[in-house]
Design goal:
Elements: H1 13-17, E1 25-29, H2 33-42, E2 45-48, H3 52-55, H4 67-78, E3 85-89, H5 99-113, E4 117-119, H6 127-135, E5 140-145, H7 151-154, H8 165-179, E6 183-187, H9 191-200, E7 205-208, E8 216-219, H10 221-224, H11 242-258
Parallel strand pairs: 1-2, 1-8, 2-3, 3-4, 4-5, 5-6, 6-7, 7-8
The structure holds 3-methyl-2-oxobutanoic acid (KIV).
């Protein structure tokens, strides 16, 4: 009998790409080492999303997220991930200017965090940048539909792709896949459009509010655990109410301290 525990092989962007039409890809975000360890045990892909700005730093949108924040959280998450494919978001302003700007910042994310791929937002207009990165050794995940970094142009966090706009978003997803993206996130689209794009493009679609026809699903981990409760988008399923449990525990602690019930004898040290 071997004393070495069995280790699952590390999933790569190519492995995720090969899941097209197979078992759906399970993906969650993570921003810290302890959460990354939990997500890594169960999921295929861990995303260090720029949602970190809103979820952990209390920012009003993702627009204030910096490269330094993504490097810091990317490194923390990388320490907790052994099995899943690790993707780090490119923050607003770090890639839109030119393929060269994107290359510099994506290379920094790979080199300084140990992630295997980057994700960037935008459709056909980002295809040239995606091809530039992929041909130079940087796997890219696309993101179309509701792209939160464009919230000021989109006029809010609304469902995208209703009516004729659906064709444009389908074209955006196709352009990214043709440019070499290994997967494309579809955010907040009508279910029928999510299914149509998933049937049309050759790489896995990872849905968030884009219906069950996608090739995989992603959620913000703090949303599905009920920790981030400032608002709850319709597409989030709450698997736990950890925010409620934490508030109860913290109130009980404060009450114990004020009433001298904590610390008890078992929490102290003898001479
Ligand atoms: O920033 C993020 O967490 C994301 C996912 C929700 C897709 O982009």
């Amino acid at each position: 009998m071997s004393a070495t525990p069995e280790r699952k092989p590390r999933l790569t962007p190519s492995d995720i790409r090969a899941r097209k039409g197979g078992v759906p890809v399970a993906c969650l975000t993570a921003y810290t080492t302890p959460m990354a360890k939990l997500v890594d045990r169960a999921c295929d892909l861990v995303l260090v999303g720029d949602s970190v700005g809103m979820v952990l730093h209390g920012l009003p949108s993702t627009l204030g997220v910096t490269m330094e924040m993504m490097v810091l959280h990317g490194r923390a998450v990388a320490r907790g991930v052994d099995h899943a494919c690790l993707v780090v978001d490119m923050p607003f302003g770090s890639y839109e200017e030119s393929p060269q700007q994107a290359m510099r910042n994506a290379a920094r994310l790979l080199a300084e965090t140990g992630c295997q791929a980057v994700k960037l937002e935008g459709g056909r207009h980002m295809a040239e940048t995606v091809a530039f990165l992929v041909t130079r050794g940087i796997p890219v995940m696309g993101h179309v539909g509701l792209t939160p970094q464009a919230v000021n142009v989109l006029g809010g966090y609304k469902v995208q792709g209703r009516g004729a706009d659906g064709d444009r978003i389908a074209d955006d997803a196709a352009a990214l896949a043709e440019a070499g993206a290994f997967a494309v996130v579809l955010e907040k689209l009508p279910e029928a459009l999510g299914t149509r794009i998933s049937r049309q493009i050759a790489v896995p679609t990872i849905g968030i509010g884009a219906g069950a026809g996608c090739d995989g699903q992603v959620l913000v981990v703090d949303d599905m655990l009920g920790i981030f409760s400032d608002f709850k988008p319709k597409f989030v399923k709450r698997y736990e109410e950890q925010g409620v449990a934490a508030a109860r525990a913290i109130a009980a602690y404060a009450d114990d301290v004020r009433n001298r019930r904590f610390p008890a004898a078992e929490h102290g040290f003898s001479e």
